[in-house]
Every structure is written in structure tokens, then in C-alpha cells.
Amino acid sequence: MLREDIGGEIRGWRHCATRRDDQDARARATMMLSSCSSRLASVASRAGACRAKPGAFGARGRGPAAASVARGRRRSRRAVGGEDDGEVDDTNARIDAAAAVLDTIIRETVEAIFIEEAATEVFNEASDADAREPMEVDKRKILRGVVRGHFEKLDGTFLAALGAYVRASETSGDLQLVSLLNAIKEETLATVTDALTDEMQVVQLVARLSSNEERFEVIRVAHSGGGRVLGDIDVPAASVENVERAAAQLIDELELQEQIPNWDLLYQVIVVRETARQLSKLADANGVYSETVVSGSFAPSELPKAEAALIKELVVVNEVARRRALIAKTFDSTRDELEKELDTSGKVKLKPTTRGFQPRVESSGNNARGFDVKDLRPGRFIDSIINLRVSLMREGEQSMPIVRRLGELYFEAVDVIVENAGA
Questions:
Q1: Which of 46, 252, 320, 389 has the CB geometry, 3.0–4.6 Å to 406, for a possible disulfide?
Q2: 218-241 in b/e burial notation, b at 16+ Cβ within 10 A?
Q3: What are 214-241's pLDDT values in tens digits?
């Protein structure tokens, strides 16, 4: 992550700007920016979620945008059944717009730094004559101002497009470009966080932590009224219940899309939700949430087809290691199969689905396991375990062996998700 500089292209522009004897400095800077855009366009052609237009950012790809973060709210976009050409065009238009915003942020940042560097050079020359302290350009501050200037456009599609460019740049080995894009990502997340509700800020804080102890501590402090924790983290006040609810809503939004826009984010937020649930007064003596979950993706009285089939497959496996390996392999298969639905141009090949409650129209994705892994969602899988367990607990002692096994499955699934989240 970039701290002291914003990347090679910007350093190159600084070099041009400070060579006062070079009358072609601006022209050189413009060429550098053009080179940056060309490299980004090349990267875009490799990004799974994007398709570049010649000479600029352009994209086709992932699922629909999240609701405007400027209003601090998120609305789920549910796509049940097939999507007509109008819906596909609408999705593509949003991703084109997100890519254009990213292109604009890069251009405005580089131009602003060029101007600041040139002005600073003039000031420093005068400072040398007057023995004054020379000035330095705060590039991070410039980037922050540019990002905040586009606050209304920093939605879920923008973050998904930005993440795709980062991954593709990493694959290409363009570390300077990776630094620039990561700097934009950091400032985008910081800007969005400022507009979030208290509970969503807690979700964002907890999602970045690397240990259970730290996650538990931050949520406890939030529940107790907020304060400073872990040395320098300021935590707003938010009840355990509100943190759990906010995380669950974000998970629903991510999982209801045809393509998961950010798998890493999904796993991180699931970890936050389950941490909050384990701290809830509704968790039983074993630490398992013991009240029926109300999800935005399925009714409490039913279990989605894919999740129910996987649970049925797992409960008859006695070895813990085998169950965990099967959960991990299935989650990986879900991600891999969904990403295969991107054609070579980067467009999402939208397919009709009923979100796991009925077989898909296509049979190619189904297998001998009795369900299509593309219909599985990790967060919904955990919700299904909890709801089935709660239902069986009401049946009395005869169901206790299965209840205990489901409790084991719950923690095993959470362990796999924690690993996938890198936490």
C-alpha cells in the first residue's frame, strides 16, 4: 500500500514538473498520463469483471451496483429468473460509468499533483533565497480531495471495478499501477466509511481485524457505548444486534447478485456477522446463535435447495477434517464455477436461476451431488445450518444427535470462512 508516494506515473510527472528548463514538461506529463491510461486499458482486458475501451477505462462485467453509499443505505437488487436485454444493458451502463469515474479520479489526481509540484518548485526556489522552510506536496491529501469530490459515485459497482483492476494489475506484475490503484481504494473506503451509520462503521472496522480476540473486543466496546480500543481505533456506539443486522444486510446484498462482486469482502463480512452472533444474548451455551434467522434471500420456513443438499451431505460424515475439507472445496467450486460464467470478453453470461430453490434451466452445472454449486452462497449456508438446528431443537431429545452435529458444522463452516477471509 502506498504511503509516501502515489506511484511511478506520478513520480514521473513530478520529475517533469520540477525540470524548469524543460519547456516540454507538460507535454511529457501528458504522455505519461496517456501511457498510464493505455496500461490500465491493457490491464482491463485481463480483468475478469471488465472490458476496456481503446484509450480509456471501459468495462463490462459484474453484477448490478449497490445502492448509493452517499445516503448511507444499501438496497438489495434481486435478480430472479432470466434477465432481458434492457436489464443487461442497464448493468453494463453502470459498470461503464464506474470505470469512467475511476479514469477521471486518476486523471484529476495526476493533474493536481503536477500543478502542485510546479507551484511548490517555484515556492521553494523563493524560499531558498529567503531562507524559508521548503514546502512538500502532500500527494495523499490531493488524492483524498479528488476521491471525495466524486463521493456520490462511489457505489458498489465502482468498488467492484476497482478491485478487478487491482487484481489484474497484480497478475500483470505492474507494481507501480497496483500502488496507485490501492491508494485510490484506501481513500475510497475511508470516504465511504465517513458516511456510514455507526453500526456499518463497526462492521467495516471489525472486517479489517485479524484475530477473534480483536473482533470480540471491538464489538464489545461498541455495544458498551463506544470508545477507543486496541490502542488507536475509535469505535462508535452500536449494539451487538445492530452490528449483526447491518452485516447480514450487506451479505444479502452481495449474495443476491448473479455474480458475487467481491468474494474477499463477502467472507470478511460473514466473519463480522458470526462474531456478533456469538456475542449475542441469543447464542446458546455452545456459542451457536439459537434463534431463527430472518434472511433477505429466503423465508425462515424453508431451506434453499443447494444449501439443504450440502448440509445433508455433510451430516453423515463423521470425520471433522473431511467435513471441513468438503466445505472448503465446495465454497471454492462455487467461486470457480461462477467466475467461469464470464466469457472471454469479460462480459457476464447471465443465466436464469431461481436462487437455489429450483433446478437451473441449464443442466451442465449440475452434478452427482444433487445440486448446482453455482447456487450455493456461504452466508446463506450458515443461515440454513442455524435455522435447521433451531427447528430440530424444538423436536426434543430425539433430535439432539443431529442438533449437535449441526453445531459442529456451524463452527467448521465459520472456520473455513475465516480462512478464506484471511482473518
A1: 389
A2: bbebbbeebeebeeebebbebbbb
A3: 999 999 999 999 999 888 889 999 999 9
CA–CA distance, 353 with 22 (Å, rounded to integer): 61
CA distance 265 to 257: 14
Strand partners, 53: 56
Yes or no: say if 264 and 422 are a contact pair by the CB < 8 Å rule.
yes
Mean pLDDT split into 10-residue runs, the chain, 423 residues: 36 39 43 48 46 31 31 34 51 77 88 84 65 73 89 75 80 84 84 76 90 93 92 90 90 85 92 95 91 74 87 95 96 90 50 42 54 92 94 90 95 95 78
The model's pTM is 0.56
Output the CA torsion sign for 232, 160, 165, 194: negative
DSSP character for 233? E
Total residues found in the chain within this entry = 423
Q: Return the amino acid letter for 80.
A: V
DSSP assignment string, 212-223: HHHHHHHHHHHH
How does DSSP classify residue 394? T
- In the chain, domain spans: 8-195, 198-421
- Measured CA distances, 121 to 127, 141, 401 (Å): 10, 18, 75
Task: Compute the distance between CA of residue 190 and CA of residue 159 in angstroms, rounded to an integer.
Answer: 12
**342 backbone φψ class: left, alpha, beta (φ>0; ψ -120 to 50):** beta
